[in-house]
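step=encode ok
step=design start
structure_in=
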C-alpha cells in the first residue's frame, strides 16, 4: 500500500517548528530531544522567561514528544516479513522461526520498566496464555499471546526506547500467526487512539513548578503526569 507521506509530514515536524520558533525543521532523531544538539541550542537561544514558560507545563513537553514518536512509527514502512498483533511484533527468519518483540506502540509507551518476567519456567505458550508480566514504578501489566508459539532461545533483557528491539526467538507458523495479525489500518487506528488519549491529558494540564531555572527536576515519565492508573489504562488501549 502506498501512503500519503506529504499528508503525514506534519507528524515529522520538530517540536520547535510546531511551536513556530523555526520556519522549517523536520526531526531526524526520532524525537529524542534530550540528546539533540539542535534542541539544546534552541533552548540556549531563548530568553529565560520563555524557557521557563516552556518548561512550566511538562504535559506539553513530555506528552507532546510521546505523540510525535507515535506518529513517527506510524510512518515506518515495514518489510513484508513483519507481522503485528496487539501484543507483539514478529519478523520472519527462516521456515517457522521468527524474532519476537513487543508491539512498537508499547515500546514507545513503556515507562520506567523494572522487569519483563516470563510466566513460569515453560517455553511453550498457547493462544490466550499469559507470557510476560511487565513491571515498573507505575505497577504492572500482563501481556497475553494471541497465537501459539514456543521460545527457541533465552529471553533477551528488555531495553525500551529503541522502538524496534527483539526479546526472543520463537517458533510458530503462518496458520497460527496470521489470524491474530493487525492490518495496517488497525495498527494506525491503535496509534491514533493512544494519541487522542494523551491529547486529552494535555488539554487538562495544569501548571506545575518543574522549570529549568527554579532547581526543579523535569518529569521523565508519562505516569508521573497522568497517574499510574491512567497510564495502565493507556497500555490497555493498545492491548485490548
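sequence_out=
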Amino acid at each position: 500500500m502506498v501512503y500519503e507521506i506529504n499528508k503525514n509530514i506534519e507528524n515529522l515536524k520538530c517540536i520547535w517548528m510546531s511551536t513556530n520558533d523555526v520556519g522549517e525543521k523536520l526531526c531526524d532523531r526520532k524525537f529524542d530531544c534530550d540528546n539533540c544538539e539542535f534542541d539544546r541550542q534552541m533552548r540556549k537561544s531563548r530568553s529565560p522567561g520563555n524557557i521557563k514558560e516552556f518548561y512550566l507545563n511538562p504535559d506539553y513537553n513530555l506528552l507532546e514528544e510521546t505523540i510525535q514518536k507515535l506518529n513517527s512509527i506510524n510512518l515506518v514502512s515495514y518489510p513484508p516479513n513483519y507481522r503485528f498483533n496487539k501484543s507483539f511484533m514478529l519478523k520472519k527468519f527462516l521456515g517457522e522461526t521468527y524474532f519476537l518483540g513487543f508491539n512498537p506502540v508499547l515500546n514507545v509507551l513503556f515507562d520506567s520498566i523494572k522487569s519483563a518476567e516470563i510466566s513460569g519456567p515453560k517455553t511453550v505458550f498457547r493462544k490466550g496464555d499469559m507470557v510476560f508480566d511487565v513491571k515498573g514504578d507505575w505497577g504492572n501489566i500482563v501481556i497475553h499471546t494471541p497465537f501459539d508459539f514456543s521460545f527457541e532461545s533465552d529471553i533477551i533483557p528488555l531495553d525500551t526506547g529503541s522502538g524496534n528491539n527483539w526479546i526472543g526467538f520463537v517458533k510458530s507458523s503462518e496458520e497460527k500467526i496470521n489470524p491474530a495479525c493487525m492490518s495496517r489500518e488497525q495498527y494506525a487506528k491503535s496509534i491514533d487512539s493512544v494519541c487522542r488519549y494523551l491529547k486529552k491529558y494535555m488539554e487538562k494540564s495544569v501548571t506545575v513548578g518543574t522549570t529549568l531555572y527554579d532547581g526543579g527536576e523535569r518529569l521523565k515519565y508519562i505516569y508521573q503526569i497522568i497517574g499510574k492508573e491512567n497510564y495502565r489504562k493507556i497500555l490497555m488501549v493498545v492491548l485490548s
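step=design ok
step=annotate ok -> Confidence is low (pLDDT under 50) at residues 1-9, 47-59, 160-164, 206-216.
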